[in-house]
Every structure is written in C-alpha cells, then in structure tokens.
From TrEMBL:
<dbReference type="InterPro" id="IPR036081">
    <property type="entry name" value="Translin_sf"/>
</dbReference>
<protein>
    <recommendedName>
        <fullName>Translin-associated protein X</fullName>
    </recommendedName>
</protein>
<feature type="compositionally biased region" description="Basic and acidic residues">
    <location>
        <begin position="164"/>
        <end position="196"/>
    </location>
</feature>
<keyword id="KW-0479">Metal-binding</keyword>
<dbReference type="GO" id="GO:0046872">
    <property type="term" value="F:metal ion binding"/>
</dbReference>
<dbReference type="GO" id="GO:0043565">
    <property type="term" value="F:sequence-specific DNA binding"/>
</dbReference>
<dbReference type="Pfam" id="PF01997">
    <property type="entry name" value="Translin"/>
</dbReference>
<dbReference type="InterPro" id="IPR002848">
    <property type="entry name" value="Translin_fam"/>
</dbReference>
<feature type="region of interest" description="Disordered">
    <location>
        <begin position="164"/>
        <end position="200"/>
    </location>
</feature>
<dbReference type="GO" id="GO:0005634">
    <property type="term" value="C:nucleus"/>
</dbReference>
<keyword id="KW-0539">Nucleus</keyword>
<feature type="binding site">
    <location>
        <position position="134"/>
    </location>
    <ligand>
        <name>Mg(2+)</name>
    </ligand>
</feature>
<comment type="similarity">
    <text>Belongs to the translin family.</text>
</comment>
<keyword id="KW-0963">Cytoplasm</keyword>
<dbReference type="InterPro" id="IPR016069">
    <property type="entry name" value="Translin_C"/>
</dbReference>
<feature type="binding site">
    <location>
        <position position="228"/>
    </location>
    <ligand>
        <name>Mg(2+)</name>
    </ligand>
</feature>
<feature type="region of interest" description="Disordered">
    <location>
        <begin position="1"/>
        <end position="30"/>
    </location>
</feature>
Amino acid sequence: MADRKKRGGGGRGGNNRRFDKSHSKVAKKSDDIVEDSPLIRAFISYRDELNDNYDRYERLYKISRDITIESKRIIFQLHLVSTDASKEKILEEAKTRLDKLIKYNFADLAKELEGHSRYQYVRAYTSGVQEFVEAITFYHYLESGTICSWNDILSQMTYHVSSGRKDSVQNEESDTVKSDDMSDDKLSESENKEEMNQSVEPIGEERKVALFIPDWDFILGLEDLSGELMRHSIKCVSSGRIEETFKACDFIRNLYTSLLTLTQVHNREFFKKLNVMLQSLLKVENACHMIKLRGSEVSQDLLVHMIGTFNTNEDEECSYD
C-alpha cells in the first residue's frame, strides 16, 4: 500500500494527476483547431445568416407596429363622419394618410423583403397588413359604399427603387459609425475623407420591387371590417341617418354569406373572426328591428339607448362550428 502511494497509483493525489494529464491533452487538441477550417467557416456563415434573419424580423415587426398604430388612428378619424358637410374633409385627410402609409411604410416592407421568401417573415407584419386592410376598406365603404379588391391593393404595392440610393444610405450609416470612431482616435483624417468620397455614388438603374400581401390577410381584414361597420351603423342612428344603418346591415349580411361559401379553410383565425362577425351582424339586425318597431314612437336618443341596452343584455350566444 505504501509503495502504491509513493508511485502515485492510488489515493486522491494520483487521480488528480491523471485528470490533469487528460485535461491537458484536451486543451492541446482544442489549440490545434484552425479557425480557417471549412467547418468553422461554415458555422460562422450559419451564425451570420441567423443573426441577419433575426434582425430583419425585428425590423419588419417595428414597421408593422407603426402601420397598425397609424391604421387605427385613421379608423378613429373615419368614425368622426357624422354629416355630409364634414364627410368630404375627413375622407380627404384619411386618403392622404393612407397614401403616406403606402408610399413610405409599405415601401420599407418591400425593400426589407426583397430577395427573400414572401412567407418566411409573414408573421412579423401580418397584423399590420390586416389593420391596414380594415382601414382602407372602411374608407372605400364610406366614400362609395363598396370596398376595394385584393388586386386593387396589390397594384399600389409596386415601387421603383434605385440601387445607388440604397448603397448611399448604407454608406451614410457607415460614415456615422466611423465618425464616432474618430472621436476615439481610431481613424485618421485621411481615411475619413476617403470614405466620405466613396459614400457619394451616382444613382444606378431603377428596379421594381413589389410587395406581396397574402390573400388570407386580406380576408381577415375584411372580417375585422364588420366591427367598424357595426359601430358606424349604431352611430348613424343617433345622428338621424337611419338609411345608413339599413345599408350597413345589408352590406355586412352579404359579406358574411359570401365568406360562408369558402370551403377547405385551414386558418384558425378565420373561424374566430367569423364568429365575431356574426355577432356584429346580429347587433345591427337587432338595431334595424328596433327601428322598425319603435322608431316612430320614441325619440332618437331613447332609441339609441334602447338599442345599446338590448345588445348588451342579450343572452343568446351565437357560435360558428
């Protein structure tokens, strides 16, 4: 036993020495790994590609959030239409804001998605597209009593982009970064002048960039439109425009029956929003029914109160299976 301890073959000390030897061998093997090997370069390219995908997804999500916020504001503005005198001015302002969304925000979406799969990042901007469809269809309904089609929206999503402009933007960003580095004495003045001269490039040939809006986003946006039409029809009762209420009721009913004809639907949101659409239709139908029965007996304010109370206390639950 004493001889084994002297040789270091037993006890804790010997085990530690053997562990140190094996650990040193692993360390030597890790030092022998060449960073320029094909395997390392492949994983570095995978890392860069994943980081690029994550960054692009975040940029698309931010653009979609801005579109959602502005679309909600446009819808709120369209609900301010109470008389024919204010209708033209409000519609004109809403049209200007919708055109700005198409010209700037959706143009940024098209540039970010250029050269990539149309469905790869669809989850990042689907909410913004649906809200925009709801806003622009609500605008067309108030303007002409009809809604725009899916192809009409797609025709407005084609942009002309110049390669020179895109490069100049990238160079401007690089100039700002490098000018900050100069404050830390990392770049000389001569290098900064050369890079500033390189940032000024002539504008190249223009190319067309088309933004594809999925058809399901358009359909889901139409289903959301029913809620805005329901609020608009109830408001028309208080302002004395009874005909608008019946017109909205017929429009929602026709839209609902048209969506029922869709078969082999594999979208969960479609059925959820279709159920909400049915409830909105029933509220408008109840309002029209109340107008026919009690419209000539009570005042408009009391009639609006009766309609709101009837819709709130309604115990009947409707579902779509």
